[in-house]
Amino acid sequence: MRFPRASGVLLHPTSLPGPHGSGDLGESARHFVDWLVSARQKLWQVLPLAGIGPGNSPYMSSSAFAGNVLLIDLRELQQRGWLTAEEIAPQPDLDDARIDFAAMVPYRMQRLALAAARFAQRSSAPERAALAAFEQQHADWLGDYALFMALAEHHGWRDWCEWPDGLAAREPAALQRARETHRERIAFWVFCQCCFFRQWAALRAHAHSRGVQIVGDMPIFVAYQSADVWARPQLFELDASGRPTVVAGVPPDAFSATGQRWGNPLYRWSEHATSGYAWWVERVRRSFELVDIVRIDHFRGFAAHWEIPASEPTAQKGAWVKGPGEALFRAIADALGPLPIIAEDLGVITPDVEAMRLAFAFPGMRILQFAWGEGEAAEPRFLPHRHASDSVVYTGTHDNDTTLGWWQAADEATRHHLREYLASDGRAIHWDMIRTASASVADTAIHPLQDVMGLDSSGRMNFPGQGEGWWAWRFRREQLPADAAARLRRMGALYERLPKPAL
Predict the structure, then answer these.
(1) CA-based R_g, the chain, Å
(2) Cβ atoms within 10 A of the Cβ of 106, count?
(3) Residues 59-116: pLDDT tens digits?
(4) For residues 287 and 64, what is the distance between their CA atoms, to the nearest angstrom?
(5) Which of helix, strand or coil describes residue 221?
């Protein structure tokens, strides 16, 4: 599907300003939408909206369907009478420059628990009816998710295969006893999801009212410690005890001698095929209830994935194993019609990956930071003169260093290539790269906010393969350069990316 020529900004909501330890779906998110409008940007790209997992990664969530409860705006709950002003007052141990997960998570979870208890005590009939309607609307995943989260908490977040046998094997009698024993905590998790979806719907409605669309992100894999794997083990490559036999990752390359061992369980694609890929169809359908465009992470894994024996500590001893290929996307298209999907076609891209992308007219990705340099350090297909219109161009992604940080660390050969190509002196390299992305023939250009702000490596969001210490970057509103919106507007005007006026 061809996208209208447009541009946007990449920023995860957790990075937004705010007084409660991390960004959320409240006032700062609406303010950011308004700032995008002032910059004449059509798109706001986010990372996965699901809950965080090991290493605080949004790509290792406890559910492929649930929202991240840590994004809930506490002030909205206070306005509803479920929290007091004193309870949401800023705390000195909550950092407004970075997310201190050790402080932020218990702070927010304690207040969500208070709000849930007060909802149970004093909610009105319309509020209870809204919750009941939400439960009915999301019945296909919500019950399993809420029970899973209650049990995971109760068992100290141990892997679900280590729970008592009846619960690990989902024996009906054991599940019913668990639902009765953990009734209050199950209700808590349902309440939190209702709050997340209500607030996200309001934020998205505000974005739409201002002409801004949301680009979401769907990880190809799910976490082992998730409601999805526990509730549907037949869909994953597990042994009789429920442990993964093989796990996901990518092989060694010029950037990593041992590759990346992600650890996600791999799909039992034969089982998915037998059901007509029903789980995937529902996952995609639910994603488009939240966002307008979906970026599918690690798209090449659908053609073939790197399969690592679960016993291996690194990704070195793996093998490429054929995936479902076009059959999966044909089933999705048959059920849901043509969809605005971005294929993250990075890494080892073979002809079958490109053929699959083209068969469904999914735009691919072009990362400018990957284009420059010599030898294996550069990928010529990312050079601007090689771009295609059916693509999305980025200066960098959440996995890259910021453009300024990348430039500061680059070798002289890379810098020389870039200076020559762009006719740049490198003094404002982030704006030179934003201009280059804007000028590209690619239909869509996305700029990480860190590059718009001209931040160095201190603004980096993630480092692939490093499990700890990332996903914590935030900005303060006063740090956003006063001329940034005007400069983006100018880029949009020069390179015909401004939103079309409403008729």
Answers:
(1) 23
(2) 11
(3) 999 999 999 999 999 999 999 999 999 999 989 889 889 999 999 999 999 999 999 9
(4) 9
(5) coil
Q: Is-contact 97 20, C-beta < 8 A? A: no
Tell me the two tokens of residue 454: 């001209």
HSE-CB of 201 using CA atoms within 13 angstroms: 8
* Residues with active-site annotation: 297, 344, 399
Phi, then psi, of 116 in degrees rounded to 5: -65, -40
Give residue-wise pLDDT tens across range 390-403.
Answer: 999 999 999 999 99
Distance CA 211, CA 482 (A): 22
The single-letter code of the amino acid at 138 is H
Output the 3-class SS for 18-48.
CCCCCCCCCHHHHHHHHHHHHCCCCEEECCC
Question: Parallel, antiparallel, or unpaired: how do β-strands 6-10 and 444-448 relate?
Answer: parallel
339 vs 362: CA distance, rounded Å: 9
391 bridge partner residues: 364
Side-chain-side CA neighbours of 34 within 13 Å: the count stands at 7
> Distance between terminal CA atoms of the chain?
23
User: Which whole-number Å values give the CA distances from 187 to 61, 116, 184, 366, in the listed order?
Assistant: 20, 8, 5, 44
In terms of DSSP H, where are the helices of 399-501? 403-409, 412-422, 429-439, 449-453, 484-494
